[in-house]
Amino acid sequence: MLLDCPLFAGVRHEDLPVSARDLRIRHYGPGQMVFNQDDESGEVYFPRSGLLLALHLDPHGRELIFTRLTTSDYFGELSAIDAGRRSLSIYAKTEASLIVMSRQAFLALLDSLPLVRQRVLVDLASRIRRLTIHIYQLTSQNVDRRLKAYLAHRALESGVFRPAGELPDMPTHAEIAASIGASREEVSRAISALKRSGVIASGRQRLTILQPNALLAE
Questions:
Q1: DSSP string, the chain
Q2: What is the pLDDT along the chain (218 residues), one digit of tens a residue?
Q3: Which structural domain range is residue 104 located in?
Q4: 144 partner at 20 to 30 Å CA-CA among 21, 100, 120, 129?
Q5: CB 150 within 8 A of CB 176
């Protein structure tokens, strides 16, 4: 099951410096916390089913959603690398099944498998670039512009950035708001404005892009 994770594509079973005692399978129900941002366990997680959300909770209980996590992802590697506390909280949006690897086993992987180490480094660099863009958007763009950028990014990532391109399984307005640093009411108003302008059409948990270039316009 571990070799099904994209991080290990091309790695042979006999080359994995991991034994059964280094791995566990855990199951989570919708809304169940995997770990919070003060956790110090250092374990690394590989989703095998379900959808998870990575978010930051401020002292007042407000959420900022950073990303969604699926079976193509892995998480927890930062704390494994530096033995520090988690920087984000993770919870299951749906029922989820995860492979859990001990910190020691993950570090052994990085030491013995240059291909895996290189992929982790590339992923970390990509994450820093995305965070840089996100910070720029929060400080220089209004909610309407941030929402357009969010929708364009999801469409491009899903390969549906075209007229009549459909984005299924859309997050709720509250989740989008937490992702772009806005309130749910602001997101609802911005989405309604895009619908009135004929840029998008939306239904239950799906959104259709009618004018993709309008999402890129300033």
A1: -GGGSGGGTT--GGG----GGGEEEEEE-TT-EEE-TT-----EEEEEES-EEEEEE-TTS-EEEEEEE-TT--B-HHHHHH----SSEEEESS-EEEEEE-HHHHHHHHHH-HHHHHHHHHHHHHHHHHHHHHHHHHHH--HHHHHHHHHHHHHHHHT--STTEEEESPPPHHHHHHHHT--HHHHHHHHHHHHHTTSEEEETTEEEES-GGGGT--
A2: 888 889 999 988 888 888 878 899 999 999 999 999 889 889 999 999 999 999 887 776 677 777 889 999 999 999 999 999 998 999 999 999 999 999 999 999 999 999 999 999 999 999 888 888 778 777 778 899 999 988 998 899 888 999 999 998 888 888 888 788 888 899 999 999 999 999 999 877 789 999 999 998 66
A3: 2-138
A4: 129
A5: yes
Give the count of domains, the chain: 2
Same domain? For 16 and 84 the reply is yes
CA distances from 20 to 12, 24, 43 (A): 16, 8, 15
Token pair of 164 as six digits: 């009549």
